[in-house]
């Protein structure tokens, strides 16, 4: 049996799942593999680096050209970074095979809405707080992603991050009352069919999945990083600004970053002000670790869902497993009812 939701019906998908746009980790091969499997694939345009976006969008579109799956691929960008340089967005929207959706997160999407709409792409906005939802609707979002604090990578800073379990139904209620035509996905901590089934119960039309697909064959991270993720449990990650300082990324204070708490991260926990004040030595240690492929220093960017990841199969297999398990769970749920 297949799971049918508004997402699968309105977006022409076989599976109610969208690949999260993952900066540096989710390139063209991963997006294409997800699209071929019947989900929606997003290239992680991330910080909007033109060369990277060009190469990875090219890989996705070469693989998908003249296939039905070309209708199921888009590109994501970090919105506050577009405010500095939107050339990668402009470039991708001009391509003969242009994105079918543009995914924006971490900033005000409204300045980009008209350009995206004119290209024919749907706008997807990821939100971390309820007060961002009206802004996304005003921008014309066709789909909103409610991101909870369990998510890998960037999200609302630890002090204000919302729980996926509560945030998704709260956004579902708001949309039902104010913008019922806008679809909703949940994100943050979804790695198996239990998570997908739970999101559907919470009122979402499907799931946006990052970490679980980060640990797939087509994702770009090094095999050694994926092996560390497979070995880790869900207690092993934390949200903090530490890796952003180490990577010289000037993120607004309202966001921070979840990754494995490796040795270098632990060294700076609770000492973030000190790190910001004098980052040179720590950055040198970080750079050396990245150059050596040493993940005691380099970041392994996954969320709490890492505790549910036990292997690194192809993305298509990951997606089909999640949907088959969700389908079983939804069918089995009927057993909880009695007359
Ligand atoms: C490696 C990695 C990189 C990410 N990069 C981005 C990004 O560039 N833009 C973005 O909007 N979200 C990014 N995210 C967050 C995802 O959009 C999504 O919210 C998150 O992966 C969902 O939670 P999960 O990791 O538990 O599936 C990233 C997540 C990961 C794991």
Report on the structure:
- With 339 residues, the protein is α/β, with parallel strands linked by helices.
- The chain folds into 2 domains: 6-221 and 312-336, Alpha-Beta Barrel (TIM Barrel), CATH 3.20.20.70; 224-292, no CATH class.
- It has helices at 6-11, 28-37, 50-64, 79-82, 87-93, 110-119, 133-138, 164-178, 193-201, 211-214, 223-231, 242-246, 263-268, 272-277, 280-292, 315-333, and strands at 17-19, 41-44, 73-78, 101-105, 122-127, 143-147, 153-156, 183-187, 207-209, 237-240, 255-260.
- The strands form 2 sheets. It has an 8-stranded parallel sheet with strand order 1-9-8-6-5-4-3-2. A 3-stranded antiparallel sheet has the order 7-11-10.
- β8, α9 (193-201) and β9 form a beta-alpha-beta unit.
- The structure holds flavin mononucleotide.
- Residues 20-23, 25, 44, 46, 76, 78, 105, 126, 147, 150-154, 187-190, 208-211, 214, 301-303, 305 line the site of flavin mononucleotide.
Layout: helices, strands, pairs:
Elements: H1 6-11, E1 17-19, H2 28-37, E2 41-44, H3 50-64, E3 73-78, H4 79-82, H5 87-93, E4 101-105, H6 110-119, E5 122-127, H7 133-138, E6 143-147, E7 153-156, H8 164-178, E8 183-187, H9 193-201, E9 207-209, H10 211-214, H11 223-231, E10 237-240, H12 242-246, E11 255-260, H13 263-268, H14 272-277, H15 280-292, H16 315-333
Parallel strand pairs: 1-9, 2-3, 3-4, 4-5, 5-6, 6-8, 8-9
Antiparallel strand pairs: 7-11, 10-11
Helix pairs in contact: 2-3, 2-16, 3-5, 9-16
Descriptive keywords:
339 residues; alpha/beta; TIM Barrel; 2 domains; eight-stranded parallel beta sheet; three-stranded antiparallel beta sheet; 16 helices; 42% helix; globular; binds flavin mononucleotide
